[in-house]
């Protein structure tokens, strides 16, 4: 089976903890703090590999974790940074957060390499926390925690035109005739079990890419048959060609077939169903009708051309009518937006994960209010409080998570001191 989706677990590296130590040298009886900083944890990076065309590798291994940064050492020794982990995927892969289904990244177009989870920043050693009133700080900053996520990988082929139609209507034959693709062709249903891509090159026109989306059946939008396996591949296409068996060689009604497929597209994604469409009335070489009987091609035109959907009679076997169809497709593509269909980012791991439901405590020790817990460690690891933007984020975090409210409930007053691990500040509204 063509591997076009996978679910995997990814984890960035934790930052190394800062170190607590003091200078111990001859003739220096009271040496100051000299604990070194921790190293940075490894990032999780996705990168497009032109040599790949499936997600098969991710079917065998499901968990990927970057290494943690090393902790700091004595004498201001900085812990080593960890190596990043790079996951290579085929172009067109969309990375989604597994629970919400929101897009994290679309590995197509100009986006060839993207950091999905950042490694934790290393914690500061105790050398950074010496002040005039605290000359021997016995604490250091912990390394920023690792980020972890379950993500869904979905490969959505990159093509200008999507071929749709019920099984055995001649899509593969059509594709093999008009492009350099060599799909497997036989006279039975579901011959095509993976999307085939081909490039159309015609004199005087710009080339375009066609994707043969494997045969749809009723209920495909609900996952019946192989529906969900293949419908995702039409999401990037700008124009849809419906291939129908105009001759009804299997007893099917071509008008009814088109109505059913449009209903499936609409149920899956109404925006896709609204894209420009062209009907390829195939197998005209096999049409036999009695005298006075309406031509099936004329019936298709009468039914769909008033809706703005042109009908082109063609024969995938003889080649009749195909050139006229392709020139019309090229003309329609020239009228459409030239920008590729890219899925915009909806989920930002760094913002989402910092607000996770982690515990924290607010206690009063002597005259100092102490706020601690995994939630605070994570926030301090992510935030650069030396920058104006970082400090504004810090204030918003305290308000949004209810920490300020708890401090006020404990009776904090303006000018009182708050301590969060190595950070100490005065409270003002």
TrEMBL record:
Provide the GO MF annotations for this entry.
Answer: GTP binding; GTPase activity; magnesium ion binding
Database matches in NCBIfam families: Obg_CgtA, Obg_CgtA_exten, PRK12296.1, PRK12297.1, PRK12299.1
- Binding positions for GTP per the UniProt entry: 165-172, 190-194, 212-215, 282-285, 315-317
Organism field: Lachnoclostridium phocaeense
Any idea what this protein is called? GTPase Obg
Subunit structure as annotated in this protein's UniProt entry: Monomer.
Show the HAMAP family listed in the entry.
GTPase_Obg
Provide the E.C. number(s) assigned to this enzyme.
Answer: 3.6.5.-
Q: What high-level taxonomic lineage is stated for the organism?
A: Bacteria, Bacillati, Bacillota, Clostridia, Lachnospirales
Q: Which residues form the OBG-type G domain?
A: 159-334
- Annotated GO CC locations: cytoplasm
UniProt keyword annotation of NADP present: no
Q: What role is this protein assigned?
A: An essential GTPase which binds GTP, GDP and possibly (p)ppGpp with moderate affinity, with high nucleotide exchange rates and a fairly low GTP hydrolysis rate. Plays a role in control of the cell cycle, stress response, ribosome biogenesis and in those bacteria that undergo differentiation, in morphogenesis control.
């Amino acid at each position: 089976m063509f591997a076009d989706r996978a679910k995997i677990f990814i984890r960035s590296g934790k930052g190394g903890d800062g170190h607590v130590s003091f200078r111990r040298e001859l003739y220096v009886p009271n040496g100051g703090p000299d604990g070194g900083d921790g190293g940075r944890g490894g990032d999780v990076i996705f990168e497009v590999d032109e040599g790949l065309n499936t997600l098969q590798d991710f079917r065998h291994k499901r968990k990927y974790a970057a290494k943690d940064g090393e902790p700091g050492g004595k004498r201001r020794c900085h812990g080593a940074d960890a190596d990043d982990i790079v996951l290579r995927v085929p172009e067109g892969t969309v990375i989604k957060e597994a629970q919400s289904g929101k897009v994290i990244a679309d590995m197509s177009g100009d986006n060839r390499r993207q950091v999905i989870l950042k490694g934790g920043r290393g914690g500061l050693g105790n050398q950074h926390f010496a002040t005039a009133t605290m000359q021997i700080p016995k604490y250091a900053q912990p390394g920023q925690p690792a980020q972890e996520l379950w993500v869904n990988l979905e490969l959505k082929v990159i093509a200008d035109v999507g071929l749709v139609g019920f099984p055995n209507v001649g899509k593969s034959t059509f594709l093999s005739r008009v492009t350099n693709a060599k799909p497997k062709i036989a006279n039975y249903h579901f011959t095509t079990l993976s999307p085939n891509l081909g490039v159309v090159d015609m004199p005087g026109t710009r080339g375009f890419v066609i994707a043969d989306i494997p045969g749809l059946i009723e209920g495909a939008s609900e996952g019946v048959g192989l529906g969900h396996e293949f419908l995702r591949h039409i999401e990037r296409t700008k124009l849809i060609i419906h291939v129908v068996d105009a001759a009804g060689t299997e007893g099917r009604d071509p008008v009814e077939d088109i109505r059913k497929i449009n209903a499936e597209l609409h149920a899956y994604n109404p925006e896709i169903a609204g894209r420009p469409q062209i009907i390829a009335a195939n197998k005209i070489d096999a049409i036999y009708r009695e005298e006075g009987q309406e031509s099936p091609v004329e019936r298709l035109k009468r039914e769909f051309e008033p809706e703005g959907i042109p009908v082109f009679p063609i024969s995938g076997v003889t080649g009749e009518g195909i050139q006229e169809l392709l020139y019309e497709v090229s003309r329609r593509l020239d009228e459409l937006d030239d920008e590729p269909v890219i899925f915009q980012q909806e989920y930002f791991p760094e913002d989402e994960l910092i607000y996770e439901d982690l515990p924290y405590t607010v206690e009063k020790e002597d005259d100092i209010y102490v706020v601690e817990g995994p939630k605070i460690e994570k926030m301090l690891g992510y935030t650069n409080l030396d920058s104006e933007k970082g400090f504004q984020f810090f204030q918003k975090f305290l308000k949004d998570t209810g920490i300020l409210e708890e401090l006020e409930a404990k009776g904090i007053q303006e000018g009182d001191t708050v301590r969060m691990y190595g950070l100490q500040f005065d409270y003002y509204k």
